């Protein structure tokens, strides 16, 4: 079973990788049409938002265990 701390670390790594990949994503998308670029940006935004929400939930869970 994956511990709470491992899930927090995994989510933080995902968010960090998404942030670090931003400039490279722009380069990879430059060859695509506007509609495809918009779709990819929307998808990446949803992934980022879900990961941020998950991290907030996990941190709140950890705080409730400590309290």
Unreliably modeled segments: none
| Annotation field: number of helices | 2
**Bulk shape:** elongated
Report, as a whole number of angstroms, the end-to-end distance: 23 Å
What is the CA-atom radius of gyration, in angstroms? 15 Å
Order of helices and strands: HH
Classify the beta-strand content into a percent band: under 5%
Describe the protein in words.
The protein is mainly alpha-helical and about 70 residues long. The chain has one domain. About 90% of the residues lie in helices and about 0% in strands. The chain contains two helices and no strands. α1 runs antiparallel to α2. The model has no long low-confidence stretch (mean pLDDT about 95).
Write the layout of secondary structure elements.
Elements: H1 4-29, H2 34-66
Helix pairs in contact: 1-2
Short account of what is shown:
The protein is an all-alpha fold. 88% of the residues lie in helices and 0% in strands.
What structural keywords apply?
88% helix; 67 residues; 2 helices
């Amino acid at each position: 079973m994956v511990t709470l701390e491992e899930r927090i670390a995994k989510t933080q790594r995902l968010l960090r990788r998404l942030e670090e990949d931003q400039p490279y994503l722009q380069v990879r998308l430059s060859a695509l049409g506007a509609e495809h670029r918009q779709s990819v940006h929307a998808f990446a935004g949803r992934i980022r938002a879900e990961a941020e929400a998950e991290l907030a939930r996990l941190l709140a869970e950890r705080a409730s265990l400590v309290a």
